[in-house]
Write a sequence for this structure.
């Protein structure tokens, strides 16, 4: 499991051609931070558009989030006084919304690699999300001019949080050729080479303040336990997460020294999430090995549907479905991350941000 956790920037105002433009966030991610993109992809099989998704959010109806309530990014944004970036495919998205809120490009099933999650039919890989970000830049340049647009994008905060699908919905599944083309280490190397290329493209597009989040113990999500013979965590999946985190830490540090004005941080959440799963009572949970929303005793249920049964107390479960955490678990992680990274409220003025364009790799038009 990977906890998608967002790096937040202090709220600031800059007058741009008559617009009071906030310092905003741009989020690149997967289902852990998707806030509605996939629900607007009509052929996507990675969906959270049926009850009981969203049961504890707003009016209780599905809203595109792959949980019962809020994502970690929702919670941190609210607590430090920043607006939540809207989904790129939100019908209300326009230039003014971008300038005021930023954009969330995250897509359920998406990965660092284009081939990841192919059986979901439609999803935004990270390459595709970067292409969409380029389009966002174009419309903002047309709105306020290149000079001020460059300033706007260079002052923004950026989050990249993908990788778990590249293992769970690619390398660890025999139906994908990557599962037999690579060894554990060469696959991680492949991911790092691809991610480095993607970060270089983002830098060429003005991305300076960037947080990349690592992976948690993927072998302990309910799906992986259900697929094991004894119901316990699958060590291979979790060990791959450790390899990924170690390689990403090294790559980011090296890349930061090579790219001008780059301020890159790596958010490691493995130990925190592992402790929550191993010692749930310590954090107020009763269950950390099965989903709150499941199809009676049939496992794995894969998704939450109207015919599913719900646990009696959603606040006592770490996991909402086979893949994703509950609102309560997200809140716990958000609170710990706020403390760990010393996030301050956006309105008190004390927060501090951590400190020729390459061609994009091809990605299918509908993904």
């Amino acid at each position: 499991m990977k906890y998608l956790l967002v790096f937040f920037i202090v709220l600031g105002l800059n007058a741009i051609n008559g617009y009071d433009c906030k310092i905003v966030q741009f989020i690149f991610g997967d289902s852990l931070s998707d806030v509605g993109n996939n629900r607007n992809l009509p052929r996507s099989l990675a969906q959270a558009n049926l009850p009981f998704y969203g049961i504890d959010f707003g009016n209780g109806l599905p809203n595109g989030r792959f949980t019962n309530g809020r994502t970690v990014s929702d919670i941190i944004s609210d607590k430090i006084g920043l607006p939540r970036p809207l989904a790129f495919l939100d019908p209300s998205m326009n230039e003014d919304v971008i300038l005021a809120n930023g954009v969330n490009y995250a897509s359920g099933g998406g990965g660092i690699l284009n081939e990841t999650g192919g059986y979901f039919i439609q999803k935004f890989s990270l390459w595709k999300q970067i292409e969409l970000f380029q389009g966002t830049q174009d419309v903002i340049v047309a709105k306020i001019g290149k000079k001020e647009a460059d300033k706007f994008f260079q002052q923004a905060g950026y989050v990249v949080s993908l990788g778990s699908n590249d293992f769970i919905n690619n390398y660890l599944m025999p139906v994908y050729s990557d599962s037999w083309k690579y060894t554990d280490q060469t696959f991680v190397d492949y991911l790092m080479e691809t991610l480095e290329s993607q970060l270089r493209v983002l830098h060429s597009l003005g991305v300076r303040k960037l947080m990349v989040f690592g992976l948690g113990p993927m072998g302990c999500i309910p799906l992986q336990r259900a697929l094991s013979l004894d119901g316990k965590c699958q060590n291979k999946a979790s060990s791959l997460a450790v390899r990924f985190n170690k390689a990403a830490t090294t790559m980011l540090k090296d890349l930061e020294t090579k790219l001008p004005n780059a301020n890159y941080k790596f958010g490691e959440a493995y130990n925190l999430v592992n402790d929550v799963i191993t010692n749930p009572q310590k954090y107020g949970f009763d269950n950390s090995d099965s989903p709150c929303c499941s199809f009676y005793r049939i496992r794995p249920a894969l998704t939450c549907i109207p015919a599913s049964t719900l646990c009696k107390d959603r606040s006592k479960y770490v996991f909402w479905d086979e893949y994703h955490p509950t609102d309560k678990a997200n809140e716990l992680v958000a609170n710990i991350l706020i403390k760990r990274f010393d996030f301050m409220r956006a309105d008190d003025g004390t927060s501090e941000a951590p400190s020729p364009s390459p061609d994009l790799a091809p990605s299918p038009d509908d993904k």
Q: What stands out?
A: The CA atoms of residues 244 and 289 lie 23 Å apart. The two ends are 23 Å apart (CA to CA). Residues 235-258 form the longest helix (24 residues).
